[in-house]
Each structure stands twice: as C-alpha cells, then as structure tokens.
Amino acid sequence: VIADPDATVPASVRDAIVTRMHALPAQTRRAMELLAVVPNGAEWPLLDAVLDGGAVALAPAEQAGLVAAVDGRFNYRHELARQTVEESLSADRRRELNRAVLAALVEAKAELSRLVHHAVRAEDRTAIARYGADAATEAIEANAFREAAGFAQLALDHADVIDDQAAIARLHGQAAQALRTLNETRRAAHHAERAVAAWVTL
Q1: Mean of the pLDDT values across residues 118-143?
Q2: pTM for this one?
Q3: How far apart are CA 74 and CA 154, in angstroms?
Q4: Where are the alpha helices (DSSP H) in the chain?
Q5: Using CB atoms within 10 A of its CB, is residue 195 exposed (0-12), middle (13-18) or buried (19+)?
Q6: How many CA atoms lie within 13 A of 30 on its CB side?
Q7: Taking 80 as the threshold, does the pLDDT of residue 21 lie above it?
Q8: What is the pLDDT of residue 4?
C-alpha cells in the first residue's frame, strides 16, 4: 500500500491524513501541497527557493510524522499520504505549484527529466516542447533509446509551438534512430519519412 504509486487511497487513510494535515499551521499546509507535487522528494534549496519561509515551514509536518528529511531532501513518509494531498488539490493549484517548481528547477539547472515532468504537470506546452527535445537529445547521447523515443514523441506532440522546422526534423530523426534500435521498424520508418519531409521544406 505504501510503495505502489498507482494504488487507490482508501477513504479511511485519506480522511486520517487530511485530519492530521488540517491541524498544522497554514504555512505548513501550503508547504505540504508543494511537496506533494514533487514525487521523489524535494531538496532543501528547491524548497527555500519556492516556499515562503523556506524548508523550515515543513518542520511541524516532520514533527507530526507526515514528512521526513533525509540526506538534505524532504519527502512524505508514505506515498499514499503524498497522493492524498496531491489529489486534494484543484487543477489550478496543481498547475500553479508545478509552474513554481519548474521555474526553480530551471534556475538550478536540474535534470532534464525533472523539467519535463513538471512542464507536463504544469501543462506548459512551450516548456514541454523545449525540455522534451533537450531530454531526447540527452537520452540519445546516453544510448537510452526507449527514453529518447518517449521524449522525442512528447516534444513532437507539441510541435505546433515549435517555430524551428529544423528542430522538428531533428526530433523525427531522433525518434527514428531510437525506434530502429528498439526494433520498432514501422514506427521508425514513419518518423524517418517525417524527418525527410521536414528537411525538404527548409
């Protein structure tokens, strides 16, 4: 129950977590909301950059046993608690928090996979296209072809916000390369054809 990120939160667990959370100061509740949208935990500099009052705002939640600080990173003690808080957020609030996290991670030059995750959750199409393309390039260079194909496709799903036709051609080429390596020949051929078509228009 604790480890499965796809598990449904039982109503009794949800109610218990919400009750404990509502007993905390408002600043701490807001900090817990932000922490809930960072699935693998948030490092202190990230929290200090985004939260009013910084990471210390989570101290009451730590004392209540809801979150823990380990090796310079805060995280929920139980995944179901994180899910409960994240699911309680309105769509607007979730987007707002992810936008704030994304901006801080960009400033900190964080891993591209993290930027992509929060761009998707923030529903920021321009950021998805930009960081998805960057992540695809990085994955190709690391011979992580399945990840490269996924990132390239994600960026191409938002090709309408990419003004550079050469960038679109490169993405199709990267997808074709990755998929050929994965023996997904039909999909690879499709992207290869699209890459050629894109280059011809330049």
Answers
A1: 98
A2: 0.89
A3: 29
A4: 11-22, 26-36, 44-50, 59-63, 79-88, 91-107, 112-122, 125-141, 145-156, 165-181, 185-200
A5: buried
A6: 14
A7: yes
A8: 45
Report pLDDT for 13.
75
**Average of per-residue pLDDT across 116-130:** 98
Residue 90 near residue 26, CB atoms below 8 Å: no
**Residue in this structure with the two tokens 């929920």, named with its chain if needed:** 76
Residue 7 binned pLDDT confidence (cut-offs 50, 70, 90): low
Are the C-beta atoms of residues 98 and 122 closer than 8 Å to each other?
A: yes
Distance in angstroms (rounded) separating the CA atoms of residues 43 and 105:
11
Mean pLDDT for the chain? 93
In 3D space, the residue among 194, 163, 164 whose CA is nearest the CA of residue 179 turns out to be 194
Give the closest residue to 83 by CA, choosing from 140, 185, 30, 6.
6
Q: How many other CB atoms sit within 10 Å of the CB of residue 18?
A: 14
Burial of 91 (0-12, 13-18, 19+ CB in 10 A): exposed
Angle 125-141/112-122 helices, nearest 10 degrees? 160
| Contact between residue 31 and residue 56 where contact means Cβ atoms under 8 Å apart | no
Are 37 and 87 in contact by the 8 Å Cβ rule? The answer is: no
Give the helix/strand (H/E) hosting 42: strand 42-43
Between strands 42-43 and 67-70, the pairing is unpaired
Tokens of 182: 């994965």
CA angle 16, 19, 23 (to 5 degrees): 140
